[in-house]
Amino acid sequence: MARKNRYTGVLKPLPLGRGSPEVSLVLIYDIEDDRLRTRVADVCLDYGLERIQFSAFFGKLNRNRRQELALRVQNELGGESGRVRIIPVCEQDLKDMWVLDHYRRDADELKAEADRGKPRLRVLAAED
Question: What is the pTM of this model?
Fold first, then answer.
């Protein structure tokens, strides 16, 4: 879709606004300072991202919200050192994703699971 500039008559693509499609993303960071790391994590939570690791978040945002998120994280970093990556993930990759969750359990739970033949490692894979 495009719109004509009323002064020049040149067609320009319409900017993707709040109605733009949401894209899945992973945000990861490597920040040494504890307070700064906590502030960046709070920003991620403010945008509805789910914590999937100590320094990794997952969620869906449209283009404007991704840009806002990037600006807020950048503002939080200020002049401090830190590395942040916002990585888009396509739907096909999400379907092909494997999730490996391994939880430590107490001795009674482990014995009960062993008696039922349940493995300690849970593998969730996409349906074929």
Answer: 0.66
* Residues 49, 7: Cα–Cα separation, whole Å: 41
69: left (phi over 0), alpha (psi -120 to 50) or beta: alpha
Domains in the chain (CATH in brackets) are: 20-90 (3.30.70.240)
Residue linked to tokens 């396509």? 90
Distance (Å) of CA 118 to CA 34, 62, 75, 94, 126: 38, 40, 47, 26, 20
Helix-, strand-, coil-residue percentages of the chain, each rounded to 5: 35, 30, 35
Q: Kindly report, residue by residue over 87-117, the tens digit of the pLDDT.
A: 999 998 988 888 877 767 677 776 777 777 6
